[in-house]
Amino acid sequence: MRYNRLAKYLLLAGLMFFVVSVFLKIGYYFEPKIDRHTPIDEELYKVVSPSTYKYILNQPSACEHNPYLVLMVPVAPGDAASREAVRNTWGQRDLVPNLKIIKLFFVGVLEGEEGEKSETAIAEENLNHGDIVMMDFLDSYRNLTVKTMMMMNWIAINCQSASYAMKIDADIFLNIYYLINFLPFPATNNYITGSVINDGMPRRAENSKWYLSKDIYPDSTFPPYVSGAAYVFSTDLAAKISLVSRFVRPIPLEDVYVGLCLKILGVRPVYGRGMFWLRNLFEVRHLNYNRCTFAKLIIITDFSPTELLKIWPDFQKNHTC
Ligand SMILES: *[C@@H]1O[C@H](CO)[C@@H](O)[C@H](O)[C@H]1NC(C)=O
């Protein structure tokens, strides 16, 4: 009798687990109701508007062979070491058989003499690799929102034919093999996944790195958003996010900004979880390298270029557990 009841509970638990995992994987979408929103002030919109900035370097034909996935890596102009590490690790060509994946670096400019020097160096680096997009906005931490919106616009203009785009920082370990298996195939529209933050709120302490004044952001909570370290989205979203940025006041937190755009679009970010145990696959913290642990995750953060280069050969040889 008691075993019978236990079996029923187990069955019920299994059923609930199934329903929850299906729900988390699919998310739910609403039709955008853009007409309810009022455009922001023209001067404010200029900050994130693509027409404000000019290309210094561009790769307009990067997507001519219809890649499946575009990796977009924001990086500081002077950080050649990180770019080289990405090129020689997860950003290599032909890592996944029969699937075209490309990567591009996105940089802004620096001021003064340092800026001129870095522009010359980057132009030369780009001659060798052809993988850098440079625009004439000041490359600073608080301008990451500008950079992100330039990446969205770049995809919207040049790469609608790709299925997915991923925004990923250069100091991240990316298990590209797991990512490819994880993404819904064929691609669905209005899809964005990563490490979802549902309970974010603005920091009001002026000395905080993430400080937001009440003037800039009066609400006391953030809508659900994906952590900016790395997130993946279907390319249709790039143009949609770019479009609704007319209605969202720029804030210096790029991932929250994308979340605010998604809210207007009625798109709910999907938590990147594994099939079993619903484990978070986008690990936004550092872990020491272990092939078996890394094989079961999509990203792990906080790696120096040297560390990435050191662990990658072992992982590439045998990325299973
Ligand atoms: C962002 O970039 C613009 C354009 O280069 C520049 O005028 C502005 O000062 C930058 N803002 C910050 C906070 O760095």
UniProtKB/TrEMBL annotation:
The name on file for this protein is Hexosyltransferase
Native organism: Clupea harengus
Keyword Lipid metabolism in annotation: yes
- InterPro entries found in the cross-reference section: Glyco_trans_31
Q: Topologically, how does it sit relative to the membrane?
A: Single-pass type II membrane protein
Query: Which top-level group of life is the source organism from?
Result: Eukaryota
Main EC class of this protein? transferase
GO MF annotation list: N-acetyl-beta-D-glucosaminide beta-(1,3)-galactosyltransferase activity
Q: EC number(s) in its UniProt entry?
A: 2.4.1.-
Q: In which pathway does it act?
A: Protein modification; protein glycosylation
The membrane-spanning stretches of this chain are 9-30
PANTHER family in alphabetical order: BETA-1,3-N-ACETYLGLUCOSAMINYLTRANSFERASE, HEXOSYLTRANSFERASE
> Which Pfam family, any one of them, does this sequence belong to?
Galactosyl_T
Gene3D superfamilies named in the record: 3.90.550.50
GO process annotations (BP) = lipid metabolic process; protein O-linked glycosylation
| Sorted UniProt keywords | Glycoprotein, Glycosyltransferase, Golgi apparatus, Lipid metabolism, Membrane, Signal-anchor, Transferase, Transmembrane, Transmembrane helix
**Can you list the GO cellular component terms from the UniProt entry?**
Golgi membrane
**Protein's gene:** b3galt8
